[in-house]
C-alpha cells in the first residue's frame, strides 16, 4: 500500500481525521514529521528548519480558520549540538510568535537522521472543512505560489541565504481567521495547487475550472524558472508553499478581500465535476510528502 | 551535549516546557517519539505498539492531573502494511477510549525504521507540577512497579503473548484526576522510580527518604527476577511503567486513597535534601530514553 492509499484507509477509520487538522471539542490539532533527507535541502539552516517545521503545522491550523494556540516539537538527531538546537528552538519560537501562538517545547530524541515532528494546536468553534465547496462558488488562493520550488532551485545553486529566506514562510493564520466567515471550503497548498484542488474536489464532491493566467506566481519563480513550462511546474505542482486554497460565494469576494491581511486571488470557479485548467484536464500531480 | 544536558538547556529557554506536559491556556500538551530498535522489542505486536506509544503520551497528561481530550500520531515506516497499520490504529484508539479521550488520527510518513510520534492533549485549569513537594509530605506511587522490565525479559524469552499483554499499560488518567486535589507534586514513572524521585527532588528543591520494603513490586517481576538484586533493578530503575509518582500531605493520604480508582502506596517521605533509600543514597539511574 502506498502512502496515499494508506491515508485513505485511515480516513475511513477515523472520521475526525482527513482534513488539514483534526477537530475535537472546540480544538484543532495537527501533526507532521519532516526529515533531513526529504524535507531540508543541503544548506537549510537549523533556524529555518525550526521555523518551517513548526510553520507547516501552524499552516494546517490556519487552513481550519482557527486561532493558533501553541506548538510542540520532537527534535531528533544523532547528537545534540548546542548552536543547532538553540537555532531550531529560536526558529520554532519566532514562527509561533508571528502568529500569536506559543512554542512550548516538546522532546528530544537520539536518532540517526535529523528529524522533526511538530504538532500545532488551535481553537475554533466553527472550523472550515474541505467539504463545503458548492458549484457556483469561486476558487481563491492567498499570496503567490512557487516560492518553495524557487527556494529549492536556489539551494541547488548554492544561494543558501536567499533560499533560507524563501523557505521561511508566514503561516496564514490571520488570513485564515479573517476568511473563515466567508469560506465554504479551505485547505493549505502544501501539496501544490493542482493536487489541493483535486483534494477539495474529492472532499466536496464537485469540480473546478481554473484559469492559468489568474494563478499568482511568486516573483522568485520568475527569477529561477527556465521557461514557461518550468514556471508552471513550480507554481502549480511543486507545492510546499503553505498558502490557503479556498472557495467562497462570488458575492463575498469583495468583503473577503477587505477582511484578509494577505491578498487573495480568484483563480477559478467551482463546477459540478472534473478538474480543468483553461479547458484541459489538470493532472492530479504534486508534491508527495516523504 | 548528551540528551539530558540538551533537555536542561531547553528547559531554561522554554519555561512552559520541562514538566511532564507543557501547560498553555487551560490545556496541557505533550509529545514523544518512539522507535522500533529502541522502544519496541522483537515480538511487539503493532496493536501493542499503538496502545503503548499513545499511552505514553496520555500518561504525561495523567501526570498533570488533567482530563485527557485527544491524541494524534505520526506513523512512519518503510512501507504500509494494511494489517499492521490497522492494528496500530486499533491499539491507539483503544487506549484513548480507556481514558475517555479520542484518537483523531495524524499523519503517515515513509521512513526507514518504524517510528511513532505521539501527541496527547488534556484540559485542566489547575495542573499539578513537579515543583510543589514540601518537606513533611509523603511520597506515593500508584499501582505496582516493574511491569515493563518484566515484559522485556519475557520478550527475550520468546513469551510474546504475555509480554505484549504486560506492555499494554493503563494510563493513570482517572487516578491523576482523582489525586490532583491532594497532590503537591506529581509526575509519571516513565524513567523509573529512582530517577523520577531525583527529578522531583530537583524540581521541588527538596530531598526524599524511601523505604525499600514499601515499594510495590509487580507480581510479574517476582516471576522473572533472578534474585533480589534483579527484582530491585527491575522495579526501581528500569522504568517505563507509567505509574504516577506523587507527594501529598500525610493527613490527606486516607482521603486520596479513597478517591483514587488505582491503589496508592506510601513509599517514603519528603525531606530537606538528599535522596536516600533505607538510609543509603539512591542512585540517579534509570531508563535513558533513546
From TrEMBL, chains A, B:
Gene3D superfamilies: PurM-like C-terminal domain (3.90.650.10), PurM-like, N-terminal domain (3.30.1330.10)
Binding site for Mg(2+) 3: 20, 60, 188
EC numbers on record: 2.7.4.16
UniProt domain PurM-like C-terminal: residue ranges: 134-274
A Gene Ontology molecular function term of the record: magnesium ion binding
Residue numbers binding ATP: 106-107, 130, 190
Positions that bind Mg(2+) 4: 20, 30, 60
Residues holding substrate: 39, 240, 287
One GO BP: thiamine biosynthetic process
Functional pathway: Cofactor biosynthesis; thiamine diphosphate biosynthesis; thiamine diphosphate from thiamine phosphate: step 1/1
Residues binding Mg(2+) 2: 32, 60
Catalysed reactions listed for this entry: thiamine phosphate + ATP = thiamine diphosphate + ADP
Keyword Secreted set for record: no
PurM-like N-terminal domain sequence ranges: 18-123
Pfam families: AIRS (PF00586), AIRS_C (PF02769)
Binding site for Mg(2+) 1: 31-32, 107
Keywords: ATP-binding, Kinase, Magnesium, Metal-binding, Nucleotide-binding, Thiamine biosynthesis, Transferase
Enzyme superclass (EC): transferase
General function of this protein: Catalyzes the ATP-dependent phosphorylation of thiamine-monophosphate (TMP) to form thiamine-pyrophosphate (TPP), the active form of vitamin B1.
Further information: Reaction mechanism of ThiL seems to utilize a direct, inline transfer of the gamma-phosphate of ATP to TMP rather than a phosphorylated enzyme intermediate.
Family statement: Belongs to the thiamine-monophosphate kinase family.
NCBIfam families reported for this sequence: thiL
Protein name (database record): Thiamine-monophosphate kinase
Source species of the chain: Haladaptatus pallidirubidus
Amino acid at each position: 500500500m502506498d502512502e496515499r492509499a494508506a491515508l485513505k484507509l485511515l480516513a475511513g477509520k477515523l472520521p475526525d481525521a482527513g482534513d488539514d487538522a483534526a477537530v475535537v471539542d472546540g480544538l484543532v490539532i495537527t501533526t507532521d514529521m519532516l526529515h533531513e533527507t526529504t524535507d531540508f535541502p543541503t544548506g537549510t539552516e537549523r533556524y529555518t528548519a525550526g521555523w518551517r517545521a513548526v510553520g507547516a503545522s501552524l499552516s494546517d491550523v490556519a487552513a481550519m480558520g482557527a486561532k493558533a494556540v501553541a506548538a510542540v516539537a520532537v527534535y531528533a538527531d544523532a547528537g545534540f549540538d548546542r548552536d543547532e538546537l538553540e537555532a531550531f528552538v529560536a526558529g520554532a519560537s519566532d514562527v509561533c510568535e508571528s502568529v500569536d501562538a506559543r512554542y512550548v517545547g516538546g522532546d528530544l530524541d537520539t536518532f540517526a537522521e535529523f528529524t522533526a515532528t511538530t504538532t500545532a494546536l488551535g481553537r475554533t468553534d466553527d472550523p472550515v472543512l474541505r467539504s463545503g465547496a458548492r458549484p457556483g462558488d469561486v476558487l481563491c488562493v492567498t499570496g503567490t505560489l512557487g516560492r518553495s520550488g524557487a527556494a529549492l532551485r536556489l539551494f541547488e545553486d548554492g544561494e543558501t541565504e536567499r533560499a533560507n529566506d524563501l523557505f521561511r514562510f508566514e503561516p496564514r493564520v490571520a488570513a485564515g481567521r479573517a476568511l473563515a466567515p466567508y469560506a465554504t471550503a479551505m485547505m493549505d497548498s502544501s501539496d501544490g495547487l493542482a493536487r489541493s484542488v483535486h483534494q477539495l474536489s474529492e472532499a466536496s464532491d464537485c469540480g473546478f475550472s481554473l484559469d492559468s493566467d489568474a494563478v499568482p506566481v511568486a516573483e522568485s519563480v520568475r527569477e529561477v524558472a527556465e521557461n514557461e513550462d518550468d514556471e508552471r511546474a513550480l507554481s502549480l505542482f511543486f507545492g510546499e508553499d503553505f498558502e490557503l486554497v479556498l472557495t467562497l460565494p462570488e458575492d463575498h469576494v469583495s468583503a473577503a478581500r477587505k477582511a484578509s491581511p494577505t491578498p487573495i486571488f480568484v483563480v477559478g470557479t467551482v463546477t459540478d465535476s472534473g478538474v480543468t485548467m483553461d479547458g484541459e484536464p489538470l493532472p492530479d500531480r504534486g508534491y508527495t510528502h516523504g
